[in-house]
Fold each of these.
Amino acid sequence: MPLPALNTFAGNPLDRAGDRRNDPAWLAEQEANPEALAMVLWNGAPLIEEEQTPRLAWLSLAHARDLSPRGEVFLGLWKEAPVFAVELGGSVDPASGPVQGLGQFQDMRTAAALLPGADAAMAGTAKSLFDWAGRHGFCAACGQASDSACGGWKRLCPACGTEHFPRVDPVVIMLPVYRGGPEPVCLLGRQASWPQGRMSALAGFLEPGETIEEACAREIAEEAGLTVSAVRYHSSQPWPFPSQLMIGLIAEVTDDQATPDQTELEAVAWVTRKEAANVLAGTHPIIKSPPPFAIAHTLLRAWVDGFDVSVSDQPA
C-alpha cells in the first residue's frame, strides 16, 4: 500500500527497481522492450500535453532516443513496463521542431502547479537526476571524466574506479510558533527577491555534524533572533531545484521578539491562525501565501488546522 503523499514532488508511483538496475543485462532488456516509454525534458522543463487536464507527454523510448544523443535515465517500472526520461538541449524550443504537436515545455515550477501529483513526482525525479549528472561529469577523486551507470543512478570513474551517487541536500523548513500571548501566532519571513507581498516559512541547509532539531534552532536564531524550545516533524518534500529534501517542521519559540537578519530575511510578521487562514485564502490585505506546491504552504495549512508542537498524538 503506497504511503500518502502530502506534498508536490512526493508520491512517485514507479517501482525504482533499485535492486535490478545495477545489472547491465537486465537494464539492456528494459531498453529493448518495445513497451518502454520516455518523458522528455528540455533544459529541465518537462513536455506537457496541451489537454483540458495537463499531464506529461509520453513518447516511445525509441522515438525519444532519436531526438537526443545525450542518453536517457531509467526512472523505474510502471506495471512492469520500463519508464525512462530523455533530456534535450539547445537554445531553440523543440516544441517548435522535433516534438511539434505533442505539447509544450513548461519550467518545473509551472509544471508543479499544473500536473497531477504522480506526474510531478516523476518529472521532479528526472530533473534531479539530469541536474546531478550535468554537474558531476568528472570524478571528484581524480578529475577524470566519469561514465553513467545503473541507468543514470551512478557515475563510475574508469580511471580510478570511484563510484559517485546522486546527492540530496537536506534542508530544514519550519514555522516558528509562539504560544505565550493572548493566542498562538506563527512567524513568516520574507526574502527581498520574492514577489511583492510573498511571505513563507523559514528555511536553511543542514550542516555537517548537525541534527535536524539543531539545524532548525540554529536557522531560526540566525534569521530571526529567536530561541527554539521544542520541534515537531510534519512531513518532507523532494525539491528538484536542483535536488533537495525539504524537512517540514513546527518549532516552538520562547518569545515573540523576532528580528529579521537583513541577509536571509528582509522582514518578518507574526500571524494568528485566523490571519494565516486569510493568507492561504488570498484575502489577507498585505501578505501573499507561498505557492500551493511548496511545503511551506502545507505547513501553514497544517498549523491553521491545529497541528501544534505541544500535541504529540495528533496525526501528521
Note: Confidence is low (pLDDT under 50) at residues 312-316.
Amino acid sequence: MKKLLNTLFINQPDVYLSLDGDNIVLLKEQEKLGRLPLHNLESIVSFGYTGASPALMGYCAERNISIVFMTINGRFLARVIGASRGNVVLRKKQYAISEDEALSARVARNFILGKVYNHKWMLERMTRDYPLRIDVAQFKETSLHLSGLMLGIRECEELERLRGLEGQAAVSYNKFLDSMILQQKEDFFFHTRSRRPPLDNVNAMLSLAYTLLANDMASALEGVGLDAYVGFMHRDRPGRASLALDVMEELRGIYADRFVLSLINKKVLNSGDFIRKENGAVLLTEEGRKKFLTAWQSRKQDKITHPYLGENISWGLVPHVQALLLARYLRGDLDEYPPFLWK
C-alpha cells in the first residue's frame, strides 16, 4: 500500500477493500492488512482485483473518490466513480489542447525533453560503468550533442520542429545501442529499428517491451480519467492510444531499452529463445516469451526514488505517477508537466 499525490495504490494481490467509518480497510482472508483515512484521497488504485464493499463504493462515489481496478499485471479493468464532475472538465481540457497544435507542442516538448535527457544519461552511465569496453570519447561527444538538442526542445513551439529534433536525438542515440550490448554479440546486435516485422532478436525484444510499456501507460492514463487515445504529439488515428505513446516516450530508454539490454547482458535470454519465420520475421518462442514476461513483472517490483516526488516507489508505479502529474497539470494544479528525469 502506497499513498502518492492523494492517490492510494494497493499492490498486494487478493485484497478486499471495505469501509469502516471514514476509513478504507484492506482485508485478506479476514486479516486486516491496513487502514487509512479517506478524507484526503482523490483516487484508489487496486492491482489484482478481489472486490470492494458496496458501502465503500457508495462512500467514494458520494465524495468523488474514484476506485480503479487493474489486473495484477497492470491492465486496466474498470473505473468506478460517482456523478460526472471533474473528469468531464479534465477530458474537455485534454481535447481542447489536442486540437491546438501550438498548445500541444508545449505539452509534448516535455515528454521529448525527458526522453532525450534519459538517453543522454544512459550514455553517461555507460562511460562511467564500462570505460574499457566502449569508445568513451564518442559516447561523450554524443552526450554533448543531446544536451544541445535539449536546449532547442525546451523552447520548441511547433510540433513539426519538435518531431525533427526528436528524430535527430533518436538517430544519435540509436547509433550507440549496439555498443551497449556487452554479451552474446554474435546473436544480439542492433543496426536499425525494424518493427513490422522485427528482423532480428533485439528488435523482437524491443517491440514486445514497447508494447507492454504502452499498455501499462494506457491503463495508467485511463485510471486517472484521461483519454489514452487522444494525444498531443501523436495525432489521432483509429485504434492508436496516442496519449499513451506520448507519455511513454520519456520512459522508452530507461524503462524498455535498459530492460532489454539487461536480459541480453545477464544472459537471461539466448539465441534458442527466438525463431525466424519464412518472411524474415523474428519472434520469441513460447518459452522465451515466458522468460521475458516473468522478468518484466519482476522488474516492475524494483524500487526507485521518483525524481520529482522524492518518494521511494516501484518501477511499475512510474507510469501511474506520470499520469497523475499530467492530469494535475491539465487541471491547472501544476505550472508545467514534470517529465521523469533519470540519472
Note: The two ends are 26 Å apart (CA to CA).
Amino acid sequence: MKKFLVPIDFSDASINAAKYAVALTSQVSEAEITFYNVYSSISLPTLSSKEEGSREQISLNELNEIRTQIGEGRNISLAVEEGSFVDMLYEYVLGHGIEMVIMGITGSSRIRQVFMGTSTLNIIRKIDCPVMIIPAEAEFKGLKKVVFTSDFTDVARTTPFVTLKEIINTFKPSLEILNVDSEHFVELTPEYKIEKEAMEEKLGEYHPEFSFLRAYDFLEGISSFVESREMDAIITVPRKHSFLSQLFKTSHTKKLAYHSRVPIITLPA
C-alpha cells in the first residue's frame, strides 16, 4: 500500500486530513501522496475558455501552497479536475491505482453532518479501496492500536482479509477485534466460537485480541471501547444498517463524541 489520495476542497477539515496523511505515511517506504481537488463543472455562460483555465490554475496554486506548508521533502503530486466530485474521484482512483483515500469530514451543524455524511458514504460505497475518514479536530499521534469491528457472521466469506492485512502490514499497529451485540452473556454461543476460530485462522499471525461487548446501543458501546482502550483508529466494513451509516443518521450528538478524535478506515466489501 503506497499510493494515497487526499481530496482537498480547501476547507479546514480537508487541510487537516492532508496534515494527518503526511504524518501517517511518513514511515511508509516509497509512499506516494496526491493532493486532489475537483472544482464544479457548472460554469457561467459568460466565462471564456481563458477564465475556465484560470480556475484550474488557481486550484493548483492553492494545492501547491498547502504542499509547501505541510509536505516539505515528501513525494506529493498535485491533481485538479473539473466535474462531479464523487464521479471524478472514482475515475481517478480507478485510473491511477490508488490504494487508499484519506479524507476529512466536518460536522459544524446538524445539516452539514447529514450532507457530509451522505457524500462520504457515497464515496465509500462507490470506490474499491479503503477510505480513511479523518475527523476535523484529529491530530496524528501515531497509529499504534486499531480495532476491527465485526458482526461475526460468516466471517470467512464476508471479511476482506487481504485488504485488512495490507493495512496492518503497512502501518504495523496492534490489532483488536470487537463484536458489539445486545445478546452477549457470560459465555459465547457455539456459533460465535466457530466464527472466532475462523477469524483466528485468518489473522493469527497478528495475534489479535478479541472482545465481545454487550451493549444495547452500538454507537455508545464502540465509543466506550475506543475511549477505554485508547484506540487510534476503527476499521470497519460498511454494510446496510452498519454503524457507519448510523453515525450520520443519529440525532444524538453525544453518540458522535468519539468521532471528533478517532479516524475510521472503511474496507470495500
Note: The CA atoms of residues 21 and 102 lie 7 Å apart.
